[in-house]
Amino acid sequence: MKASLEIKDLSVSIGERPILKDFSLTINKGEIHALMGPNGTGKSTLAKALAGHPDYTVTGGQALMDGQDLLALSPEQRARWGLFMAFQYPLEIEGVSIANFIRAALQARLKEGEDFSAGDYYKELYAKMDALKMDRAFTARALNVGFSGGEKKRCEVLQMMMLKPAYALLDETDSGLDIDALRIVAEGVNALRGPDFGALVITHYQRLLDYIVPDFVHVMADGRIVKSGGKELALELEKHGYEGIAQA
Amino acid sequence: MQTPDDSALNLDREKGNFSYDVDYAYDAGVGLSEKTIDYISEVKKEAQWIRKFRHDALKIFNEKPLPLNWAPKDIQNVEFDKIRYYLSQGQMPSRDWEDVPDKIKETFERLGVPEQERKFLAGVEAQFDSESAYSRMKEELAKQGVIFMGSTEALREHPEIFRPWFGKVIPVDDNKFSALNSAVFSGGSFIYVPKGVKVKQPLQAYFRINAESFGQFERTLIIADEGAEVTYMEGCTAPRFETSTLHSAVVELVALKGAKIQYITVQNWSNNVFNLVTKRGWAEEDAQVRWIDCNIGSRLTMKYPAVVLNGKRARGEVTSIALANTGQVQDTGAKMIHLADETTSNVVSKSISVGTGRATYRGLTHMKPGLKGCKSNVVCDALLINTNSRTDTYPAINITGDKHFVQHEASVSKVNAEQIFYMRQRGIGEKEALSLSVNGFINELARQFPMEYSVELKRLIEMEMEGSVG
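ok -> structure tokens follow
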């Protein structure tokens, strides 16, 4: 079995409009990839299509997670198998507390006859909240309701840390964060880093990559990757802009 | 984005969906006439004044038209001449579960009633078709002078307490169904709580329909004397029959000076039940009447709990949750009648429409001219699950006078497909995501229910969500 998220010639449309065009990328476990590029090139589309959003139609290609066909699964099955997506705009869920929501997500992963210890759960939840410098009072608050942009993003990272995915797609997790929040969120991602975790970090800015140092950087234009390189590519981008890269 | 599919629902109401063949010793037969009433009166060996009350009511029932100018059209389909109006095994309410006839006892055991009694209740009454089969209250309450019994017994044994208020909060001619109930009423609970007595644990009644084509017409009257407090809860179920069943109760609450009455209903009727109920409370000075009303199931429910605020600083509250599933109409609401200064009313109503279900809020806030310092707050929120679900709001606010504070808010929201996707991305299945958002919608209200009931409510709502996604 291949321990990787392997995207091969993936084409995705929204309605009749093709967005991703023969997109290919392999993320091995243990690697962090950054995906950069201007607005409207298909970065978020890639994340949503992989997560199984029903508005995104796959018109060609494949996505294999550890060798298994990801696209044949429902969104919840993909999640239970270990795929996590941190949303660019996390949704507000009225009346459902953070603690109950994460617990429901964990319980959905239990096999028949498996048990769940509430004591251990809260211990872990509090420890992770402390690491993200989130007030414990947050556990009782309705998920994302009335949260600031930064609080929502921390809450996404908290969910990721609790669900321990094999592969994470972070869709502009840095947008709307000040430097302190950015650092804390990055520490959360770095805490998961290791041989059993692969991630795709989607971002506009080099800034985030100072804190989450990627193994690879890819630049996207018009639905596909136009340039790949090491972390120095992000710095180059910062200097010359996307225009220069796309033409190079 | 695609919304959850609008397919018909296959409801799991299995817990209540069973019935037993019972030999009824007393059966008033099919249809309604003077004879039906005489039969009921004779079986019950009633006083002459009650028999007359019934006959007068029957006349009013026959004269009054159905409220077709505003009521849901399905009300025309109640077949009054095909209903059985009185069925009993001739049982006297027993004080011990062991003495309850076998099939009736088994019914209530399957519904978990004896278990609930042991766990958290101060008293229980269990009605099977027309008559109560079991009635028991903790001894210390009896010692304090609390009365808790069926309508037949109570009118026979304590007419001096109950007769003055019987049919006073809800006059016989209030509406066609209050007249019908007054003609053929049987069962229900009569409660009297003496001055200053505070009943800590709830008293509960369980209403069970067992027979097909049957009408259940219980009558409840609760009197809390000055400074007394009581909480009463009712649960209702019926098996799923092909033919329609009628449940038409009259519930009158009387809270004297400084008294508090809380009345909680969690009903889970099967889809063949017409549920046409009149509920009204009367609140004297500094008294509080609160209705917590949860309507799940039935074919058509029409119910508008009311509070008449007759004394200074009296307070009335209605907290209601209605869930209308495919094929169901929940036409519910609240009426607050302010007749004294500085009275307060508060209505919070949440409705959920699933599939082709239709939930309607119909409310009335009335303040008598010349009053001052009254407050009224009405909030009704509706949640639509599918694209073909429907909700309507008909508030009527009828206020003159000054220095009042009146507020009405209504909102309609749809389950957001992006929210469902968000939850699914976390591994939560589509159905569960839907029930999480529905439970989230009613969470604030459900929290006000006693714990046992909010757990039950959550479970019922999860079952209703079964099959609402495609």
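Chain A has seven helices and ten strands.
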